[in-house]
Amino acid sequence: MSLQEAVSSLNTLKSQSMKSITWNGESLILLDQTQLPTEEIYIDCTDWRQVAEAIKKLRVRGAPAIGVAAGYGLILAAREAIASAPDEVTQRANFLEFANILKETRPTAINLAWAIDRIVTNIVFPCDTMVAALPLIEAEAKAIDLEDQRLNEAMAKAGATLFEGKKGIRILTHCNAGALATAGLGTALGVVRELYSQGQLERVYADETRPLLQGARLTAFELHHDGIPVTLLTDNMAAYAMQQGLIDAVIVGADRITTEGDVANKIGTYGVALAAKAHNIPFYVAAPYSTFDFTLQKGSDIPIEMRSPEEVLCFGGIPTAPTDIEVLNPAFDVTPHELVSAIITEEGVLTAPYNKSIADMAKKIIK
Ligand SMILES: CSC[C@@H](O)[C@@H](O)C(=O)COP(=O)(O)O
């Protein structure tokens, strides 16, 4: 498939929901999310380094999406490793080094490490040669992509059960946990789409999500594109909207969830959860099993990505503050499980006590 054909197939798919990642057998085509909503630019990644750069710079972003993109990036890494040396030992060492660099591009969303480890451990390690592993890596990367689409659909259905019999529902969301952040319908926005298709949704309130405006640039864009009513508000208006009685429930995505149910998500999520608690509004998190870190108990142990001060000091290259001041720029925060009303997964809706419901889910998955 040529770049042109891939772009036109992406455009067709976008009429159902935004599709931002396409593997065409030769290269990985990514919709550059840093350019949205003003420009739809596609990057043709023929080198795994371009995939790493795209993840680091948030051209592709959202926990499930970066896992899917990295899976395809490993095909490019394996091809280069095979071409880099005649002997198996060097090829394998080079591949593992490339995989590690990809894995380290973003530290908080566990879906990235999960996808890379799944391919390295299940596919590459048991194979005798990198040449033999190559088609299997490609098959596994596609399986991760397709699986994410199915997980999104299952979460959408599970999430809708929380709103049975209700109409005119107004949902607040933070950041972008939609089609742009996954391979399918989205996690939080998958539930929103399901409610909309059942005629139950009145509208979505989208926090703009400082500093990189994923809510304004991506969520508002994605929902508006798909004809779902959306109202944009700045982050500091969320508590006001709750106080005014405009919000029935909050639904957000997640980048990592611990075994106790603590949730890392885009910076600002914790404040939204606190405000929801104060106003007695349910705070739901939607995430697939690939977002759970079954090795971590406490949210305080989740590595939080600190990003460049420029993201806070400027927007679109235009300074919005004195440029020589100190800046705090954590990309994520952790919402303690006490503030989480339920976690929507493909296995159903998990409720407190989370250490038990998450352990039961882990048993089902790790059979
Ligand atoms: C379905 S994606 C859920 C999260 O990944 C999303 O809410 C988020 O925090 C994304 O952060 P980003 O820094 O844009 O990758």
TrEMBL record:
Return the annotated site residues (Transition state stabilizer). C175
Pfam families from the UniProt entry:
IF-2B
One GO process term, biological-process aspect: L-methionine salvage from methylthioadenosine
Organism superkingdom: Bacteria
Keywords tagged on the record? Amino-acid biosynthesis, Isomerase, Methionine biosynthesis
Catalytic activity annotated for this protein?
A: 5-(methylsulfanyl)-alpha-D-ribose 1-phosphate = 5-(methylsulfanyl)-D-ribulose 1-phosphate
InterPro entries recorded: IF-2B-related, IF-M1Pi, IF_2B-like_C, Initiation_fac_2B_a/b/d, M1Pi_N, NagB/RpiA_transferase-like
Top enzyme class, one word, equals isomerase
EC number(s) per entry? 5.3.1.23
Pathway of action: Amino-acid biosynthesis; L-methionine biosynthesis via salvage pathway; L-methionine from S-methyl-5-thio-alpha-D-ribose 1-phosphate: step 1/6
Keyword Oxidoreductase part of the UniProt annotation: no
| Active-site residues from the entry | D255
For molecular function, the Gene Ontology terms on record are: S-methyl-5-thioribose-1-phosphate isomerase activity
**Carries keyword Ion transport?**
no
Binding residues for substrate: R61, G62, A63, R106, Q214, N265, K266
NCBIfam families linked: eIF-2B_rel, PRK05720.1, salvage_mtnA
Record-stated family: Belongs to the EIF-2B alpha/beta/delta subunits family. MtnA subfamily.
Q: What does this protein do?
A: Catalyzes the interconversion of methylthioribose-1-phosphate (MTR-1-P) into methylthioribulose-1-phosphate (MTRu-1-P).
The name this protein carries in UniProt is Methylthioribose-1-phosphate isomerase
Source organism of this protein record = Veillonella criceti
Q: What is the lineage of its organism?
A: Bacteria, Bacillati, Bacillota, Negativicutes, Veillonellales
